[in-house]
């Protein structure tokens, strides 16, 4: 930062041009170490100092702010650039479109795309791919396919990256037949699929029973083209075979990891643990979890959630409490699903004090209760004849204007409210009699 300031001071005093590679390198370093605010102050100092940055300098700041998802600063730089009379280059347009697409600001990305076309600036591969993402995520696959056709007309190189975007987008829009058609076009256009292509296809087809033979065809294509699977491929296959209830094939995939020199990662263990849990083999799920910890792989919140279910099923409350402590220790952001598992498990175990503590803890962390949270607590208190605690939960719901939509939750709320009103009427009666 001191070096960047020195360069800026040299410019202001000695009129040294700040639009230099040295200055840009220092700005880039600020972004690389996450000093966003310092970069913004430096940018403002340049503008206030009367400096007229060139397109490259603007792009360094734009790229840095967008990389850190700071769209307020990005838009300011963009507007400053246009006010200064600079015409954004293709690279700058692509940077903006790609940044907004990543942030899911699809409308903003489309506005910039239209500006780019109006100014007759030819989009590059980055801009086109960003717009593919925009339209696919907006569930407008037909516009995305028109973008793909325009790429061909503009002679944009049809790489495996472009095809991967198209295939993934179509699968995400449930357009399986079109995705397979695009995959087969790769062969006719002599574009060699990469391992990512096959992983996208296998994962996208995973839960479509009618496309089972296609997965076999894709695996055969991998063998023919001598593309070895990676950890994503093998993990996806584990998920596939668990979904089919084919434990023998799960075992074969697990045994193939050493053959390919692949080490399981957190996603692999997640697939294995959740699969074993759903199959009801809680002891095996526990062994997989212990193996994961022995390999020094930190579980994510989803795996911790699965293991809560496993340990509750095994009546192992000591490990339940340990997982709860681990999440706090590792500063992992707990989800509503995590707390619902904790609360549900404690309610079923009859430990209402712990369930209540988890309920208050989640609210303290701004993890907001949902239909399942309230339903579990109300049902537990009602079954335990604890009307006071049930009434407090109902009042919490009223205080935050929570609207029950679940039919069973509605019935529970009506039941608790009716009992509460009856008790109030009885209390009012005896109070009146005592007077």
From TrEMBL:
Keyword 4Fe-4S: no
PROSITE patterns: PPR
Top-level taxon in the UniProt lineage: Eukaryota
Record's keyword annotation contains S-adenosyl-L-methionine: no
InterPro entries (alphabetical): PPR_rpt (IPR002885), TPR-like_helical_dom_sf (IPR011990)
Short name of one Pfam family: PPR_3
Ranges for the PPR repeats: 54-88, 89-123, 124-158, 159-193, 265-299, 335-369, 370-404
Alphabetized UniProt keyword annotations: Repeat
Subunit-structure text: Binds to mitochondrial small subunit 15S rRNA.
Function according to Swiss-Prot or TrEMBL: Regulates mitochondrial small subunit maturation by controlling 15S rRNA 5'-end processing. Localizes to the 5' precursor of the 15S rRNA in a position that is subsequently occupied by mS47 in the mature yeast mtSSU. Uses structure and sequence-specific RNA recognition, binding to a single-stranded region of the precursor and specifically recognizing bases -6 to -1. The exchange of Ccm1 for mS47 is coupled to the irreversible removal of precursor rRNA that is accompanied by conformational changes of the mitoribosomal proteins uS5m and mS26.
Family to which the UniProt record says this protein belongs: Belongs to the CCM1 family.
Official protein name in the record: Pentacotripeptide-repeat region of PRORP domain-containing protein
Species assigned in the record: Gigaspora rosea
């Amino acid at each position: 930062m001191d070096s960047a300031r020195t360069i800026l001071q040299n410019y202001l005093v000695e009129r040294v041009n700040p639009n230099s590679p040295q200055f840009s390198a220092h700005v880039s370093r600020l972004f690389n170490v996450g000093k966003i605010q310092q970069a913004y102050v430096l940018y403002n100092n340049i503008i206030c100092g009367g400096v007229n940055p060139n397109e490259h300098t603007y792009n360094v700041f734009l790229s840095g702010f967008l990389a850190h998802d700071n769209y307020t600063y990005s838009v300011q730089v963009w507007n400053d650039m246009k006010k200064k009379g600079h015409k954004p280059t293709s690279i700058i347009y692509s940077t903006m479109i790609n940044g907004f697409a990543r942030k899911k600001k699809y409308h903003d990305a489309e506005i910039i795309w239209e500006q780019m076309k109006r100014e007759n600036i030819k989009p590059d591969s980055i801009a086109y791919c960003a717009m593919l993402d925009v339209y696919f995520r907006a569930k407008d696959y037909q516009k995305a396919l028109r973008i793909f056709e325009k790429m061909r007309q503009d002679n944009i190189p049809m790489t495996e990256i472009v095809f991967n975007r198209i295939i993934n987008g179509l699968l995400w829009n449930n357009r399986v037949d079109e995705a397979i058609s695009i995959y087969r076009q790769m062969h006719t256009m002599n574009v060699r699929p990469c391992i990512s292509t096959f992983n996208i296809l296998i994962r996208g087809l995973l839960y479509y029973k009618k496309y089972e033979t296609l997965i076999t065809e894709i695996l055969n294509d991998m063998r023919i083209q001598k593309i070895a699977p990676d950890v994503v491929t093998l993990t996806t296959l584990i998920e596939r075979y668990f979904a089919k209830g084919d434990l023998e094939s799960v075992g074969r995939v697990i045994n193939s990891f050493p053959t390919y020199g692949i080490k399981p990662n957190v996603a692999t263990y997640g697939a294995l643990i959740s699969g074993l849990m759903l199959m009801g083999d809680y002891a095996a799920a526990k062994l997989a979890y212990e193996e994961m910890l022995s390999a020094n792989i930190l579980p994510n919140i989803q795996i911790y959630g699965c293991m809560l279910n496993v340990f509750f099923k095994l009546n192992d409350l000591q490990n339940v409490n340990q997982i709860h402590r681990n999440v706090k220790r590792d500063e992992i952001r707990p989800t509503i699903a995590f707390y619902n598992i904790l609360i549900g498990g404690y309610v079923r175990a009859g430990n209402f004090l712990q369930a209540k503590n988890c309920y208050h803890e989640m609210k303290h962390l701004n993890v907001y209760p949902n239909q399942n949270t309230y339903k579990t607590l109300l049902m537990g208190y009602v079954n335990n004849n604890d009307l006071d605690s049930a009434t407090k939960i109902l009042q919490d719901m009223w205080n935050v204007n929570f609207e029950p939509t679940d039919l069973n939750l509605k019935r529970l709320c009506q039941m608790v409210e009716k009992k509460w009103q009856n008790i109030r009427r009885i209390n009012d009666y005896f109070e009146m009699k005592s007077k």
